[in-house]
Amino acid sequence: MSLPLLLIAMAAAAPASLHFDLSDQSPQRHQVYQPGGHGMEPGATERDYLFSVALPEGNYRVTVRLGSRTSAGNTSVKAEARRLMLRNIATRKGQYVERSFLVNIRTPALPPPPENAPGGARVLLTPGDRAEYTWDDKLTLEFLGQPRVASLDIAPVDAPTLYLAGDSTVTDQFAEPAASWGQMLPAMLDDQVAVANHAKSGATMKSFSSDLRLAKLLSGMKAGDWLFIQFGHNDQKRQWPQTYVDPQTTYPAWLRVYIAEARRRGAHPVLVTSPERRNFDAGGRIEDTLGAYADAMRRVAREDGVPLIDLNADSRAIYEALGPDVAPTAFNDGGRDKTHHNNYGAFLLASAVAQRIRTILPDLAPHVTAPAFDPRHPPSAEQIAIVPSLIHSDQRPAGN
């Protein structure tokens, strides 16, 4: 089936709207998920739970009515693999509030190439990918904190999509305590833009292409969408000979491939320099481990007229503002991991990205709902206070 026919078939299969009663006494609140239906996923606690609905891939507007007639609440909502959608929505006893957000869901299926043409019909997934609430045939929502959810409405929506291509510092990390800025970004945008995070732990620009992740991303891209491109951490590894790229030659060339593919579809490419690793020198300054790649990306942005989000510079400012003693509290594995972040650190980096969007992307800026952010004066972990998800793992993200 051709891509246009596939999209038409998918649209026809999507329901016009779905409504669920998730109040405490509702049967739907206690129904166990069965393939093709809806219900609760395993692992729920007395307070927190995951609720899934079988749906075709695409963008959906999710509207939640939060509150309870009998008790106060404080509800956070995450989608799929811990994408933060709503944070700490407080309701008094008897009070109800309504909030909406967009969720992008996908499967690994690709429009199959014609006979004798190169390519594949599915994204190449690892066992870890298959265990996540990402590459499946359902939308999964996680309700956390002191959740009080009266009802849930889901409807397909045609909306601009912000695609993310990158590595472990961008991807939707599946398990606590690791987290990345890409999975925090949805909470900083309004309900008129969907975030489709295709980033992969351990990915390089070459592997992202050979695993057909780039093909998957491009298969759904349309005019007016955005493509944020952040690679470097793994691309610089000479010990990975099949995917290593030189900052002066092959790295810029590969960046231009991604830029060209987005522009060919009428989408807007945006380059994002990789966040620095947390290595302090004796003077309390962050040591440079990615400079040649960040400089190469800045050069491509200038020469090709591509907007640049300089997260490398902002990350250095954030870590140095926190200082050597506090900065580890923003990182995975109790600070022993100097590359990957926890919820706090990921939220800080996403705030920096949101602020850059506000200042350099005039078409996307009106959709930013996050408050103004200065990386030289980051808020404390107590001020951010993101409720942890139900799934935990002591395994560090790939590519560390």
Automatic annotation (TrEMBL):
UniProt entry tagged with the keyword Hydrolase: yes
Superkingdom as given in the UniProt entry: Bacteria
Keywords, sorted A to Z: Hydrolase, Signal
Signal peptide: 1-16
Transmembrane segments annotated in the record for this chain: none
Start and end residues of each SGNH hydrolase-type esterase domain: 166-325
Gene3D superfamilies per UniProt: Galactose-binding lectin, SGNH hydrolase
Family as reported in the entry's similarity comment: Belongs to the 'GDSL' lipolytic enzyme family.
Identification of the protein by name: Rhamnogalacturonan acetylesterase
Native species: Sphingobium soli
The organism's taxonomic lineage, starting at the top: Bacteria, Pseudomonadati, Pseudomonadota, Alphaproteobacteria, Sphingomonadales
